[in-house]
Design a protein that fits this description.
48% of the residues are buried. This protein has helices at residues 11-25, 36-45, 62-69, 147-164, 168-178, 190-195, 206-214, 219-227, 253-264, 266-273, 293-298, 305-323; strands at residues 2-7, 28-33, 54-56, 73-74, 87-88, 91-92, 101-112, 138-140, 181-184, 201-205, 230-232, 239-247, 277-278. It contains twelve helices and 13 strands. α4 (147-164) crosses α5 (168-178). The strands form two sheets. Strands 1, 2, 3, 4, 7, 8, 9, 10, 11, 12 and 13 form an eleven-stranded mixed beta sheet that branches. The chain is α/β, with parallel strands linked by helices.
Length: 333
């Protein structure tokens, strides 16, 4: 028996849950691990003849909302050993029809190297990143491939709508910000470039920084890594869930449901919690992070997730056609 999983989750996390699920159930996990936008494109291309059973992780729930609206996801209410309402405060936990459910809670902030950029020199708002001070000193993934980068774009436009009632100041900001990029990350995560001193700001979820720190393994190595890499979150940042979903027309639906149930089990949550906040409120913050979930939520911005889902592709196309006026930035993940 087999289950096919599509995911942009960190490979170490994906490998661990695959091995644990296979050990517990005897069901072999095949995984395609690639960036969010590519996973989404693959699901769209395979709509008539689906190959995937489960999609987990997408830089947040916005691509899942779009996919649900396109009929790519199947409702399934998992067996969850903790309370899973639609909302917890103003954090949206799941789709009302159970077409997707959050497994992790992620906040969009940035990585920085404290040995190069002291705390008193950090940007104080997202608007600061469009200032000439940061020219060629910022790195992020390519929105054409990355849900992380697309969330950055969508959040900028949403802040513009909330502040002015118009998208246009947001597009002006994004154009100025784009010219501060050194490149798109392609040969490793932005956190790696930041820790090496190649740039000062790397746009990231906290888990992407934690994963890089965790790869050092020993406590001494981790302590050393933290001297060159920290993560922070700014006011008015998107804090959202990263979901899991059953693919509509999945070739192995029963195995898929068992896999989704497993992810919500204590063991599944434990594996994800190594580098992520998880939706099970009984778990602590992940190790090596300076924030609690309450502090993250205190920096969060209100989000119209239905608007974000409906405008995902339009905003990506406008970013590509209007903002990207250079072609030397590297494609990322």
């Amino acid at each position: 028996p087999t289950v096919m999983v599509y995911t942009p989750f960190p490979q170490s996390t994906a490998d661990e849950w695959a091995a644990a699920f296979e050990r517990d159930t005897g069901i072999h996990v095949e995984q395609i691990e690639e960036p969010t936008t590519r996973v989404y494109s693959r699901l769209r291309a395979e709509k008539a003849y689906p190959r995937a059973d489960v999609w987990i992780g997408g830089g947040g729930m916005v691509p899942f909302i779009s996919a649900a609206n396109e009929g790519l996801l199947e409702p399934y209410q998992p067996h969850i050993p903790f309370d899973m309402p639609e909302h917890r405060g103003h954090l949206v936990l799941r789709d009302p029809q159970w077409r997707w459910e959050g497994v992790a809670i992620i906040g969009l902030g940035f990585a920085y190297n404290p040995s190069r950029l002291p705390a008193d020199q950090l940007p104080r708002t997202w608007d600061d990143l469009a200032l000439p001070r940061w020219h060629h000193d910022v790195i992020m993934y390519d929105p054409a491939a990355s849900g992380t980068a697309m969330l950055f774009v969508e959040a900028a436009i949403m802040r513009s709508l909330q502040h002015s009632g118009s998208e246009e100041p947001g597009w002006k900001y994004l154009t100025d910000y784009y010219h501060n990029l050194s490149r798109y990350a392609g040969d490793g995560p932005p956190s790696m470039m930041v820790s090496r001193g190649e740039c000062d700001i790397g746009i990231h979820f906290e888990h992407q920084v934690l994963q890089y720190i965790e790869q050092n393994h020993s406590e001494a190595a981790i302590e050393q890594a933290q001297k060159s890499l920290r993560w922070t979150i700014l006011p008015e940042s998107p804090v959202i869930v990263d979901p899991i979903a059953l693919v509509k027309g999945a070739p192995h639906p029963e195995n898929a449901r068992r896999f989704i149930d497993y992810i919500f089990s204590h063991e599944g949550m434990r594996i994800i919690n190594k580098c992520f906040f998880v939706v099970d409120p009984s778990f602590p913050a992940p190790p090596h992070l300076d924030y609690t979930i309450d502090q993250m939520m205190a920096h969060s911005m209100p989000l119209d997730i239905d608007w974000m889902g409906a405008n995902f592709h339009r905003l990506l196309v406008r970013w590509q056609n209007q903002v990207e006026d250079n072609h030397w930035l590297w494609e990322g993940s």
